[in-house]
Amino acid sequence: MTPDLNTLATALYVKIDDELKARPWLAPERPAGGIEPKLSDAELVTLAVLAALLGYTSERRWLRRARRDFAGMFPYLPGQSGFNKRLRKAAGLVAGLARVLAADTTLWSDDVWVVDSTPVECGRSRETAKRSALASWAEYGYCASHSRFFWGLRLHLVCTLGGLPVMVALTGAKADERTTLLGMLAGEADLVAARPGQTVLADRHYYGRAFEAELAERDLRLLRPAHKGEAPRPGTALFKPLRQVIESINQTLKGQLELERHGGRTVAGVLARVLSRVLALTAAVWHNDHTDQPVKRSLLAYDH
Question: Does some domain include residue 228?
Fold first, then answer.
């Protein structure tokens, strides 16, 4: 296989279709006597991944492009409303497939994880914050990396050094990063238990005796820079070049996959769009891994 968009789309569709046959519980629930949709779940998810890889933030524009350039791959394409409704209901499927693809790579067994969170802006005006359907979830928060306030959510990521997403969580902007990480680890207890001695690379915000004690109980080794006045921590010399990895992953999601231009206006809409971008990154890493590309996280072969 070669690393190009058409090959990725074909390989991804076949993989998803096979997984849905082997694990039918991943698919969204439908009435027993319902009509079979013209666009299959495998085609729906593949379309969403292609839209993210090509940087489309408008579903109408993307479907016009798909009808022009990808009609041979997708015999039936719904309207914008139908596509949007199907994708919102498929958020669980998208998340499940991201895990399936991630586990099907050589990067999955990496013994170092990098963790961080990044803003997912959902609006800028005061009226949006007051009237939005996201008002019960989204919050005002501050991004220290870019010295800016924002209204929205935070995407929390646990990734390998090769840029493969392992765990994902989406919270309010003010959610504590340490509490969220512990919740993510608790939700993936089997995965954590299967990785004794795993190294977790984090920034200085992931600190605290109780927090580090909980990580130690899970047999995880935390590597982070020391706070001012704190004794030097082991591994500090190796920290800076490795910490840049998670910043680069965040930039890939924002700069190439348009994470903060998701366009979601409801909880289900934001979930579907954000998870589609995480799946797109995972799919690119998966395909690059299977085609023996030197840089697993590169999207250059798929963004045009």
Answer: yes
